[in-house]
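If you are new to this repository, start here. Below is one unmodified record pulled from the training split, so you can see the exact layout before writing a loader.
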Amino acid sequence: MDESAKGTLAILAVAAAWGGTFPAMKAALASSDPLPFLAARFALAIPLLWAIAGEAPGPRSMGTGVLVFLGFALQLEGLTGTSATKSAFITGLNVPMVPAIEALLFGRKPNRRAVLGIVLGVAGLALLTGIYGGEPPSWGDLLTLACAAAWAGQVVAVDRLVGSEGPARLALGQAIPVALLAAAGSPAVGETRLPSDPVSLAAVVYTAVVATAGAFYLQGWAQSRIPPEAAALGLLAEPVFASALAAALLGEGLSAGQAVGAAMILISIPLASGGSEISGDPDPNVIGDDPDPGGGRWTA
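And here is the target side for that same chain:
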């Protein structure tokens, strides 16, 4: 097997690991509150990430960690009011949101493919949540949509930092604020149920060791063997793995209309990602030339 094939299989393993976090977290939240779970996950992941990075993070990467915290916290809170399957696909809308944020904040106009991706993603969201039929979205759906927006902001920030910070150091810098903010926020919002039963503890270990430290390391290994475009396409399988595992482990499913909406969201992601070569002059504030804005970040 050549190195390219090994890299492709590795990136698919990363997508599967991240897809597995959705049913794992959904199951854990039956006996644990969201913020204590998040604090435990990253408290376990930080020493592993520090070993990978080999040095302390910079202050700018820790600032980006606030967006990571919001992304994870909103995702976990949203999972208490929506299914793991819907959460995975709605979270995937962070990709079509990126060119919209770039246009709003930096005046970088998205090209036609990106605009089509945004429109298709919004239409898919309407089908997935039932809005098209007059059914209001659940509060869990809305929190997860806000989670996707936080992840989109994080992608934009990472794109401007990864060249100077390095992906491993940047990931560590983002992980530390997540653990601290989750631990501090838990008593403030009255969330006191710590992961303590076998299911929630297993979910902590899985999400910290496999889906955070392990998947991050494997992603870097894979992307040293395949181009970022191939890695991005491989990671599109994440919501597919999530929905399959949620069906197998939690008995979740989608109606015909929701399945169409999920498919539209899935199609919108490569459209928007492929439209990331944004028209206009390059942003002078961009640090580095990493073509993959998702390098060194988590989506689950």
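Two things worth knowing about this chain: Residues 275-297 have pLDDT under 50 and may be disordered. Residues 3-274 form one domain.
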